[in-house]
Write a structure and sequence with these properties.
The protein is α+β, with helices and mostly antiparallel strands and 504 residues long. It has 4 domains: 2-80, no CATH class; 86-281, no CATH class; 307-373, no CATH class; 403-502, no CATH class. The chain is built from 8 helices and 25 strands. Strands 8, 9, 10, 11 and 12 form a 5-stranded antiparallel sheet that branches. Strands 22-23-20-24-25 form a 5-stranded antiparallel sheet. A 4-stranded antiparallel sheet has the order 2-15-14-13, with no helix packed on it. A hairpin with a 5-residue loop joins strand 8 and strand 9. The model is unreliable at 287-300 and 360-368 (pLDDT under 50).
Length: 504
C-alpha cells in the first residue's frame, strides 16, 4: 500500500512539474508574441523588455537563439532611430506582390521570370535589359540560400556565375539587386545582415582599387522597418528614390514608395514615438511646388494623345509653380482659383490616360501599359515582362578538395602547396576538437596559432571564388562565423593581397 501511495505521489509531483513547465513555456511564447507586436508598432524599448522577460523564464534555453535574434533586431532599430531620414514622400501606391516590380520606371521588358538559366527556382524575377553585357542577380547557392551572383557576356558564352563577395553573402537570403544609374552603388535586400527585422535594404559601393564591392551599409530608418523592405532604385534623372515594403499591408501586396532623392539623404535623431510612427508611415505630403514625373519616360510614338498629354502636364507643372508662389498670399482668392484650375487639369489628364489604356502607349510592337495614379504627382506605368531568357553560360571549373561527409575527416598531410591557396576557417579552440565536432567537414587542417589556440580550416581552393561558393555550406554545418583565409607558400596573407596576386 505504501509503495502504491509513493508511486501515486511521484506521479502527481511529476505531473505538477510538467504542468508548471508547460505553463512557463506558454508564458514565454506569449511574451515573444507581445514583443513582436510591440516591435511592429515601433515601441522598440517595450519590445526589448518583453524579450528579456521571456529569456528569464526560458530556463531550458529552448528559445534562446530566437530571443537573442529578436533582441538584437530591437536594439538595431533603436540605434537606427538615432540616425534616420525624414524624407519627402512624393507618392505611394499599393500593388500585388506577384508583379509590383513591373511598375518601376525601368526599361520595358527588362524583367524575366524564373526559373531561367540563371535562377533554377521560381519566385524572384531577374532584371536583365536587352543589350546589357553583365548581370547581377539573385539565385540559390550551393547551401540552398539566395545569394547575389555576377556574370558577363564574352564572345561566345556568358561567364560562369560567381558570388559578389564574402561581405555580401550571408546565411540568410539576398534578393532584388539593383545598380545605381552610374553603376557605382549596388542596392539589395537581405534578411541575413544587421537589420531590424524581415528584409532590410542595403547599399554597397564599388571600390576600383580592390576591384570589388565594399562592405554593405544598412539604408537605415525609415527605408527599413520591422516588415520586409526591398527593391530600391534611384531614377536616372536623380530626382527620386523608389522602394517597396509590406510594412502596412498584407503579405500578398506591397506599397511602392516614391521619395525625393535629396530629402531622403538627410539624417538626424528621432526619439519621440509619434514622430517615429509618422516617419515610418511614409505618407505622401501634398506639395504643389513639386514637379510632375510621369510614367511615360520611354520613347513612344507621337500621336494626338501623347502631344496633348505633354501639353497638359506642362500646364499642370506651371500651375503648381504658381500655387507655390502664391501659397503665402494674405488674400486666398487667387490661390483658390489656381487650385480649382489644377483640379480640372488633373481630371483632363486622367481622361487622356484612359485613352492611353484603350489605344496603348507603344514603345515596342503591340505593347500596352497599365497606368496607375494618372494626374497625380507621380504616375506608375506597368511594363510587360521580357521573353524567356536564353543564355549560354559557361560551367564553373571547381578546383578544390572540399567535402561534407557523414563524419568529418582530418587531412592526412597538414602541409599546404606552394603558391596562392585559400581555405575556410571555421573554428578556434583552447583545446583539441574531436572529429565528431567537425560537422562532417573534410579535409580539416589543424594548426596551433601563436596565441596557443587550435585553429581549424577546411579544404584547399585555388581560387577565391571557389572558396566563396562553399562558405555558406560550412556556415550551415554549424559554424556561422566561418570565414575565408589565404596562404602564399604556406604563410598566411590577407585575402585582399591574395586576390590581387591571383588576378595578375
Amino acid at each position: 500500500m505504501r509503495r502504491k501511495l509513493g508511486c501515486i505521489l511521484l506521479l502527481l509531483m511529476t505531473a505538477g512539474i510538467t504542468l508548471r513547465g508547460q505553463a512557463r513555456e506558454g508564458r514565454v511564447e506569449q511574451l515573444i508574441a507581445q514583443g513582436d507586436s510591440l516591435h511592429r508598432a515601433y515601441l522598440f524599448e517595450d519590445a526589448r523588455e518583453k524579450y528579456m522577460l521571456a529569456a528569464d523564464l526560458d530556463l531550458e534555453q529552448k528559445y534562446a537563439a530566437e530571443l537573442s535574434k529578436r533582441a538584437q533586431q530591437t536594439q538595431n532599430a533603436l540605434n537606427m532611430t538615432e540616425f534616420c531620414a525624414d524624407p519627402h514622400v512624393v507618392a505611394r501606391e499599393r500593388f500585388l506582390r506577384k508583379d509590383f516590380f513591373q511598375y518601376y520606371p525601368l526599361k520595358s521588358q527588362g524583367w524575366h521570370a524564373s526559373p531561367n538559366p540563371l535562377d533554377s527556382l521560381d519566385g524572384y524575377p531577374t532584371y536583365y535589359p536587352k543589350g546589357e553585357k553583365s548581370i547581377i542577380y539573385s539565385a540559390v547557392d550551393f547551401a540552398g540560400t539566395r545569394s547575389l551572383f555576377f556574370t558577363r557576356e564574352t564572345d561566345t558564352l556568358w561567364t560562369a556565375p560567381r558570388l559578389l563577395g564574402e561581405s555580401l553573402t550571408t546565411m540568410g537570403s539576398e534578393i532584388f539587386p539593383m545598380l545605381s544609374p552610374d553603376g557605382k552603388t549596388l542596392y539589395f535586400a537581405s534578411d541575413g545582415l544587421y537589420g531590424m527585422g524581415g528584409y532590410d535594404l542595403y547599399s554597397s559601393a564599388w571600390d576600383p582599387e580592390t576591384n570589388s564591392w565594399g562592405e554593405p551599409e544598412n539604408m537605415g530608418f525609415p527605408f527599413n522597418s520591422p516588415g520586409d523592405d526591398f527593391l530600391l532604385m534611384d531614377t536616372e534623372d536623380g530626382k527620386y528614390t523608389i522602394f517597396a515594403s509590406n510594412r502596412d499591408c498584407s503579405r500578398d501586396s506591397v506599397y511602392i514608395y516614391v521619395l525625393d532623392y535629396a530629402a531622403s539623404r538627410v539624417r538626424k535623431p528621432f526619439n519621440d514615438h509619434r514622430e517615429i510612427v509618422r516617419i515610418a508611415s511614409l505618407r505622401p505630403v501634398e506639395d504643389f511646388g513639386r514637379l510632375d514625373h510621369g510614367a511615360f519616360t520611354e520613347t513612344v510614338e507621337e500621336n494626338t494623345n501623347t502631344r496633348l498629354y505633354r501639353q497638359k502636364t506642362d500646364e499642370a507643372r506651371a500651375l503648381r509653380d504658381s500655387i507655390a508662389r502664391h501659397a503665402s498670399d494674405p488674400d486666398p482668392t487667387r490661390l483658390i482659383q489656381l487650385r480649382r484650375r489644377l483640379q480640372d487639369l488633373n481630371a483632363e489628364i486622367e481622361i487622356i490616360a484612359d485613352a492611353f489604356l484603350r489605344e496603348g502607349i507603344v514603345s515596342a510592337p503591340a505593347e500596352e501599359k497599365e497606368v496607375v495614379g494618372a494626374g497625380l504627382s507621380y504616375t506608375f506605368a506597368k511594363n510587360n515582362m521580357g521573353p524567356r531568357l536564353r543564355l549560354k553560360i559557361a560551367r564553373a571549373r571547381r578546383t578544390n578538395t572540399f567535402r561534407v561527409l557523414q563524419v568529418g575527416r582530418l587531412a592526412q598531410d597538414n602541409s599546404l602547396p606552394e603558391g596562392i591557396v585559400y581555405q575556410i576557417q571555421f573554428a578556434t579552440a583552447t583545446r583539441h576538437l574531436s572529429i565528431d565536432s567537425f560537422g562532417g567537414l573534410a579535409p580539416v587542417y589543424e594548426r596551433i596559432s601563436s596565441s596557443l589556440r587550435y585553429v581549424y580550416t577546411v579544404g584547399l581552393f585555388d581560387k577565391y571564388e571557389d572558396a566563396l561558393m562553399e562558405l555558406n555550406t560550412v556556415k550551415k554545418q554549424g559554424f556561422p562565423e566561418a570565414s575565408i583565409v589565404a596562404w602564399r607558400d604556406g604563410r598566411q596573407i590577407s585575402v585582399s593581397t591574395a586576390r590581387s596576386e591571383e588576378k595578375k
